[in-house]
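Please, structure for the following, as tokens.
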Amino acid sequence: MLKSALFVFFAKAKRKIAQEGGREFSTIFSNEIIKTPRPIFDTNYHVVERNLDIARYLSWKGEKTVFPLPPSGDEAKKKADELLKNINPEKPVLVLAPSTTWTNKHWLNENWAELIKTFSDRANIVITASSQDKKLTSEIIAVSGKEVTDLTGRTNLKELREVLSRADVVISPDSGSAHIAWAVNKPKIITLFFSTSKNRTAPYGEKYFSVQAQESCSPCMKKKCRFKTDECRKKIGVSEIISIVNNILP
């Protein structure tokens, strides 16, 4: 994108490398343009592999790719202790992270509510989101009619990392929360894909479950539905996710 290219323009590096096919004339400030095995916006080519193509161009020979996160720290642990003090230690922890910055990535509120109703007796239900998503999470909780641990707007990134490290299962649309949960290497993760592609932006590697909406226009890679129907967001049924959770929840 052009905004990325501007950083390249002002950099003082002698070698300025970009991949062929960047949008918004983003390659004009680079002095090395590399061709990759797949088109840069191929929805079936994972973005991690796309970025590793640059490393391979620079003769990287690595065979293993990992995403270690540093420890969250004592302060974050204390905050997580406080936030989760009311959960039942005899039950597993199911974290729902329903929000993203794209409305077109969101699952239906009633489906999240149905998950809460289904598992509230069997697990501790925790909801995480940013403060700007308070309306969304409040509606989900209200529809469910159940008590949950609502952490909307109550964690920074380190504290969120610590909370997710204590989860047994995390369910999220295509979002940063899903990737943080995967990187802490503890919970099982279920990711839901509507306008974006699970082959492109799902957690990289193994130990996760991803479900793609089966709609002719999905993935469209658009923030908002161009048909204004949001049909793809209806194509992942709550029963399908309940079945997966039943198989993996301790």
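The two ends are 43 Å apart (CA to CA). The CA atoms of residues 21 and 39 lie 7 Å apart.
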